[in-house]
Write the structure tokens for this entry.
Amino acid sequence: MIGLEQVYWLMGAMFAGIAILSSRDRVNPKRAGNAGFWGLLAVSFLFGSIIGDLANGVLVLALVLLGGTGALGRGAPRTTSPRQREARAKLRGNWIFGPALIIPFVAIGGTLTLARFSVHGVPLIDSSEATLVALALGIAVALLVANIWLRPPASTALEEGRRLADSVGWAVILPQMLAALGAVFALSGVGGAVGRIATTWLPLGHPFTAVATYCVGMALFTAVMGNAFAAFPVMTAAVGVPLIVHRFGGDPAIMGAIGMLSGFCGTLTTPMAANFNIVPAALLELPDRNAVIRVQIPTAIPLLIGNILLMYLLVFRY
Amino acid sequence: MWPLLGIAVVVVGFAVGLNPLIVIAAAALVTGVMAGIAPLHLVAAFGKAFNQSRYVSVVWLVLPVIGLLEREGLQERARMLVARMRAATAGRLLIVYLALRQISAALGLMSLFGHAQTVRPLVAPMAEGAAEARHGRLGARARMLIRAYAASADNVGAFFGEDIFVAVGSVLLIKGFLQQSGIQVAPLTLSLWAAPTALLAFAIHGIRLWRLDAKLKRLAAEGDP
């Protein structure tokens, strides 16, 4: 059966290749740091499932030390100049979009169909992992097509991947780091403590203040944790169910739906939601790490106010 | 209450501008120690969670393909394509993308678009191309602003579209949690009540994207370097 583990092998191979190319890059004075960082990441993807929790923990600490202390430089893979790109864009025409479009089409087609195939009664793909496996398949097909069509020198795709990976740098592991922090928070009972504070200190005697506290609490707690999924159980158990539903007779479906979306307003405003806010800034080569957050805050605030009003108007009516 | 010190570490660390990797590791350490978890156990728990969330990184697999296509002029072609459309402006283009992202997410097609797959190689260059066609060469501030707005259109579209789809993680989480509290709700009802906020999000962010064009015009007039 093909599942995420096989996708991780592919990723491990990619990072291993990037590490080897990095170690040979004489232009980058910090090449040892780059090779070490990408190499450790390769180990994580290739062997993370068998080396045990403690070894994984030590591996993460090593990644943090390398990425957090400026040990990574930026490699100089050979690529084309802006003028060459301009010329090739004219030459290739709109066909250049083809391989880029293969990815989503295979990803969707695969998600819808792959889980149905089986060999001797064993399903070919684990259905719970179908989306990510199909995405990886789409990428593999696109890479194959692009290589057959464009015929670049053998290591070109890997070198170009290294160029982009170096431009994102240590931020590559930020989303996983935040997920791990969330796990430590959960283990330490942080959520319960925040919920107790919210209910002890706030005036919740009126339906409107209960609704406002719930929505603002979802947004703030999400901003701190970086994830609305962590905030939802805490705020809903502390304020949502006991007050909005039980005391004031609100509709639980409306409360849950709008409450979660209030949390998403918080996601727009926080560096803790790294894969949405910090990683794109790195990917788009923005010098200001918080540039994406800055343009999202003026949308998040009126939207949160709108959510509070929507919930107050709807939740006690249906 | 002491484990909350970890949250303070996060807030202060990010505010001071320390490297986020160091901030997160320190916050995890402080939280765990304050909760009385033994150091080795803490390192193992952190490693386990890091390892189990490797799936969020699968999207990086796209980097070699995108890099290869960029080398052959993908971004330049995206700019040329848009420069020929006379009605296109950066703001209008991003409104169209916001709508596409929101609708596709509402249909459950989350991986159709994304920052690595579409924003960097296609959407941001297209928006830059449209602005260049209108205002001439772009200054650094205008270019950064367009890119940041391109990323924001992807986020707003994804967040406030996905909950309209019935089988998405957050809808199932709401249903699951309420069920534990003894309350039954149908996923379809939840996704129905996500619609008003989705429309509001499109209206608010759409207006801001629409006003981006005026902002770019002003930047061009000021002679943004």
Strands of chain A lie at 118-119, 122-123. The first strand of chain A starts at residue 118 and ends at 119. Chain A is about 75% helix and 0% strand.
